[in-house]
Amino acid sequence: MADLLSDDEISDRLPEQWTREGDEIIRVFEFDGYLDASGFLSAAAGLAEDAWHHPEMTIRWGEVEVRLTTHDAGGITENDIDLAERLNGIHD
Ligand SMILES: C[C@H](O)[C@H](O)[C@H]1CNC2=NC(N)=NC(=O)C2=N1
């Protein structure tokens, strides 16, 4: 199981456009409409399954909010950072 990251490690490794809220890292990905957001959601779910690391994702018109934490560790680990970077990669 991945170890919890320290506050400094989280700050240093937080990917672009992501913010930290307590035990989670969050990004709201923006899109031109609902179907674009839906396509991202599906692709993101595939990356999560590949990583075997599953975020909470909320789809709204024109955006997908992604919240990542490592439940098994009770906080933020490198698994969260790594998946956040991969999600940036399919959007930015
Ligand atoms: C049993 C299963 O391997 C675990 O629940 C995995 C699955 N996906 C997961 N996703 C997240 N976000 N955190 C976990 O600790 C986690 N653990």
What does the model show?
The chain has 92 residues and is α+β, with helices and mostly antiparallel strands. The chain has a single domain, classed as 2-Layer Sandwich (Gyrase A, domain 2). The protein is built from three helices and four strands, in the order H-E-E-H-E-E-H. The chain has helices at residues 7-13, 34-51, 78-89; strands at residues 19-21, 24-30, 56-60, 63-68. A four-stranded antiparallel beta sheet has the order 1-2-4-3, with helices on one face. The longest helix is centred in the middle third of the chain and has 18 residues, at 34-51. It is globular, with a radius of gyration of 13 Å. The mean pLDDT is 97. The protein binds ligand H2B. The ligand C[C@H](O)[C@H](O)[C@H]1CNC2=NC(N)=NC(=O)C2=N1 binds at residues 52-54, 69-72.
